[in-house]
Design brief:
With about 220 residues, this protein is an all-alpha fold. It has helices at about 1-15, 20-40, 40-70, 75-95, 95-125, 130-155, 160-165, 165-175, 175-215.
């Protein structure tokens, strides 16, 4: 099933004149960045917070622009509120990246636990569908364990740690790897996916070209 769908995607991309070489290069680059990020997850966390902040400000600005562009829309007030909240959140993340990373890490821990609990409940609702419920149950337990582990790494700062920039950095190093680790793993997964797609495109292009070049197509009609 996976091989068929992968080859179908490869043929579709090959038909769209997608360069498999560029896909392969991009995939290797993202995979390499992810591997590098594993070794510097603390700094990757800081970069991610700044990036999230910039995206939030841009998103809020677009929301406001769209709200004033459609003044007659009944939901314009909520549109403006959402845009302002996005901009404020983005400014806070840019101005206070360490504090933002702290609360975002807590949010990740809570989200993992909540999603794990929901998956466990879902597993018991699909017990009549074979062994799939065991897999759902297993992933739910893993999410809860990961959430507990992430939450366990977070230590509230002391007054002495917040007093100096060095103290804040040392405090963040104890838990600041979490977001960076997530980003690094995401880069690696995305890179491997692009590499797989690149080889699928290459395979589809070779089979298509090979069929034509080796006489695999329909032979031209001859006239007597």
């Amino acid at each position: 099933m996976t091989e068929v769908s992968g080859s179908a995607a490869g043929r579709a991309l090959a038909g769209a004149n997608i360069s498999w070489g560029w896909l392969l290069a991009l995939g290797i680059l993202m995979l390499a960045l992810g591997v590098i990020g594993l070794g510097m997850s603390y700094w990757l966390t800081i970069v991610a917070i700044y990036w999230f902040g910039i995206l939030a400000v841009i998103g809020g600005g677009i929301q406001l622009f769209d709200a004033f562009h459609h003044k007659a829309w009944k939901g314009v007030v909520w549109h403006v509120i959402i845009g302002v909240v996005y901009i404020i959140a983005g400014i806070i993340m840019i101005a206070m990246p360490i504090a933002s990373a702290f609360w975002l890490t807590i949010f990740i821990a809570v989200a993992l636990v909540v999603s794990g609990v929901m998956r466990i409940f879902m597993a018991f609702h699909v017990r009549d569908q074979g062994s799939v419920w065991l897999w759902v149950l297993f992933t739910g337990v893993i999410s809860i364990v990961l959430g507990i582990l992430v939450y366990g790494t977070i230590t509230p700062p002391g007054a002495d740690q917040l007093a100096t920039a060095e103290g804040q950095v040392e405090w963040m190093r104890s838990w600041g790897w979490v977001i960076g680790l997530f980003v690094a793993v995401e880069l690696m997964v995305e890179g491997m996916a692009l590499i797989a797609v690149a080889f699928a495109v290459k395979s589809a292009a070779l089979s298509s070209g090979g069929g034509t070049g080796n006489g695999g197509g329909t032979a031209p009609a001859t006239t007597g």
